[in-house]
Amino acid sequence: MLSTEEINRYNRHILLPEIGIEGQRKLKHSSILIIGAGGLGCPALQYLTAAGIGTIGIVDFDKVEETNLQRQILYTIDDIGKPKVDCAIHRLSRLNPFVNFIPYNLQLTNANAINIIKNYDIIIDGSDNFVTRYLVNDACVLLNKPLVYGSIYKFEGQVSVFNFSENGDDKGPTYRCLFPNPPAPESSPSCSEIGVLGTLPGIIGTLQANDAIKICIGIGEVLSGQLSIINALTMQFYTIAFERNKNLFDTAPSTLEEFVNFDYSLFCSATKPKNVNEITSDELNDLINNKRNAIQIIDIRSINEEPILNTLKEIQIPFEEIVENRGKINAEKKVIVICKLGIRSAIAIQLLEKNSSLTNLYNLKGGVTEWIKKYKP
């Protein structure tokens, strides 16, 4: 039942014949899990909270950073350094006290995903990496849960609904039907590496919330078997249709045991190549202080990719241009190749060694992220 206060709060919903009192009750008795309280998760959380979803779970293990504030509008400067889950729930509880929030301040893995996801009616994927996307998709398939997908890249966003069925029988296409194979790590940089228009995640996250609400109530057309693509620069909206491909299910875990043992990092090639010479931040710092003329530092991040570190600033050759610019690399010095996490730089070294006679290349272990932890510039 809805209280008098709830009826007043949701009046604009109830006035719509497609929703009414019964539709609002369905929202109240629905549960939605949002994976990621970042750019996509923030707007989805705000609108689902305002709409009166009864139970909302939030999965995120990150803390608020200053760079988040450009697009993650749930947070303020007072939240910097605090867990996103805690900050989000504190803010959302003030928006709607009738919603029950369940925090999961942890990283979603195939060891804990099933036990978390099984408790919710609908899953919204607001993650920013392919490991989590494939993991969440496979868990939803095993548990028969509809999955509302969203992603962003610079000025372009995508939205779709996977594993959805109106009648409970035939399920719609899954994430693997649309993307059978993950892209190579070097071809899929995150927004922290290439940037993103601040309003874009707001648009996409809101569209995710929109489809989740329609699923809860059972109204309208759901984006099942359709991928909506939005270009925020040109304001062009177009849709691609796709079908469920049962042949692809052979490549995914078919049982809970297989799911728990599936190596998603290996499948997505999220781990850096092996057999690449590495150097630690401490070792590099020692070389910079004592043998600076004996080394050359090559930054293979994108132009203007932050953070810009004066200590490590020497030569910048973006990853995609590294092979054709191999002539700029000094064959007589110890060459340190750097990127954000040490993955793209390791792949760059493999490419250089394959396409040249260079044998003096070293990968900065952990990339500039580890360097910053050690030597806060």
Structure at a glance:
With 377 residues, the chain is of the alpha/beta class. It has helices spanning 4-9, 11-14, 20-28, 41-51, 84-95, 113-117, 130-143, 175-178, 191-194, 200-217, 256-261, 264-267, 281-290, 344-355, 367-374; strands spanning 31-35, 55-59, 100-104, 122-125, 147-153, 156-162, 226-231, 236-241, 278-279, 295-299, 315-316, 334-338, 361-364.
Task: Give a verbal description of the structure.
This protein has 377 residues and is of the alpha/beta class. It has two domains: 4-267, Rossmann fold; 278-374, Oxidized Rhodanese, domain 1 (3-Layer(aba) Sandwich). It contains 15 helices and 13 strands. It has helices at residues 4-9, 11-14, 20-28, 41-51, 84-95, 113-117, 130-143, 175-178, 191-194, 200-217, 256-261, 264-267, 281-290, 344-355, 367-374; strands at residues 31-35, 55-59, 100-104, 122-125, 147-153, 156-162, 226-231, 236-241, 278-279, 295-299, 315-316, 334-338, 361-364. The strands form two sheets. Strands 3-2-1-4-5-6-7-8 form an eight-stranded mixed β-sheet, with helices on both faces. A five-stranded parallel β-sheet has the order 9-13-12-10-11. Helix 4 runs parallel beside helix 5 (84-95) and helix 4 (41-51) runs parallel beside helix 10. It is elongated. It starts with a helix and ends with a helix. The model has no long low-confidence stretch (mean pLDDT 91).
